[in-house]
């Protein structure tokens, strides 16, 4: 979450190994944002390979 007034991010947890099943929150959130599962996986791979 972001405190828009102060521009301070607040993080509840960093899940370095999120669930990737049909009932997992990350794929569901991506779908709500208009990102397909395939696009999500591609982006995760690209980010993990970047410097």
TrEMBL record:
Pfam families found in the cross-reference section: Dala_Dala_lig_C
GO molecular function, one term: ATP binding
Positions of transmembrane segments: none
Domain ATP-grasp, residue spans: 10-46
Protein keywords: Ligase
Electron transport keyword on record: no
InterPro entries named in the record: ATP-grasp, Dala_Dala_lig_C
Protein's name according to its UniProt entry: ATP-grasp domain-containing protein
Organism listed in the record: marine sediment metagenome
